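Q: How would the structure tokens look for this protein?
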Amino acid sequence: MPTEIEKTIQMIRRLGVVRPADLESRGLSRHHLYRLVRKGEVERRARGIYVARGHSYSINHSLVQVAKKVPQGVVCLLSALRFHELTTQLPAEVWIALSGKARQPRLDHPRLQILRFSGEALTKGIEVHRIERVDVCIYSAAKTVADCFKFRNKIGIDVAVEALRDFTRRHRGGAADLSRFARICRVTRVMQPYLDSIT
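A: Here is the predicted structure in token form.
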């Protein structure tokens, strides 16, 4: 029979990235987690975020950390563009969308750029990607391009146009999706001249 501490390390390896609450919800004590940290079997990645020693990190590890700490957030704009390989930008923060009523998250690392979305602009176009054994909510490529035009004053029109150009090159059959999300984000008239010049 495995001991409680052995069960704890097995669970951490199975889950990939954990919070103490993840272990407690499975009947395991957070004290075993802290003992494993002291022994060097588990590493603390940020406040309340832990991985087993030898964890296999992806280039999207910061998105995983945010998904664990802010599960109601959706990765958006520059971070979503980067995930979908639609930009040359390297954002220093993780960009997430939250509803207007959601509590302001407190994270020491990574830094967050938070935008408030509502209605269909918040709920439509969400994809769930499995990264490091964690489900991460990210807006689809087409939704992200539409969002970039909606928030062009925040990220720059040049970034939005670059994303649109890359999207049309990579997703040849994506015009209908792009059009649908442009309507949802109310940017059809703004996007159309750029789309005409590209196609």
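The first strand starts at residue 42 and ends at 46.

The radius of gyration is 19 Å.

Upvote if useful.
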